[in-house]
Design brief:
With 135 residues, the chain is mainly alpha-helical. The protein has a domain at 2-71. The chain has helices at 2-24, 28-44, 51-71, 110-123; strands at 86-90, 93-97. The protein has a two-stranded antiparallel sheet. A hairpin with a 2-residue loop joins strand 1 and strand 2. Helix 1 packs antiparallel against helix 2 and helix 1 (2-24) packs parallel to helix 3. It is elongated. The mean pLDDT is 79. Pfam families: Complex1_LYR (PF05347). It comes from Spumella elongata. InterPro entries: Complex1_LYR_dom (IPR008011).
Length: 135
């Protein structure tokens, strides 16, 4: 019974923190009311010992968290990487450069060849047998 109580407490604490985090991201007009409502709800359930009531309160809190996730605007992504880069460490410094490719004009990338063959097959070119008579 003690471990079940501890598990419910840790789950409710995680739920409380997540709800507050999302409520802080609400627009200014709704932010304070949302935070205060979350705090009041959890304080009201603090003294409850009835397992059925605790379960119902946690289900309602999970539902509210789902709603907060929907209505909360997403935060802008920080530092979105564009393209591929290669990081080289050496001489106690970091250098960014374009990735080096083993595939040049004199040899071909096996993945590119396989993709090309799949595209030809999908387009209806089964093999090169129909072209042999023209050369």
């Amino acid at each position: 019974a003690c471990s079940a109580t501890a598990m419910v407490l840790s789950h409710s604490l995680i739920l409380y923190r997540n709800m507050l985090r999302y409520a802080r991201s609400l627009p200014a007009a709704k932010r304070n009311d949302g935070i205060e409502q979350i705090r009041k709800g959890f304080r009201a359930g603090k003294e409850t010992d009835d397992p059925a009531l605790i379960k119902a309160m946690l289900e309602k809190a999970n539902s509210t968290l789902g709603y907060l996730k929907i209505v909360t605007p997403r935060s802008p992504k920080q530092h979105v990487q564009t393209g591929k880069t290669k990081t080289v460490f050496g001489d106690d410094s970091m250098k960014l450069s374009r990735p080096v490719s083993n595939w040049t004009g004199s040899n071909m990338d096996p993945d590119s060849v396989a993709r090309h063959e799949r595209s030809l097959k999908r387009a209806g070119f089964k093999n090169n047998a129909d072209m042999k008579g023209f050369f």
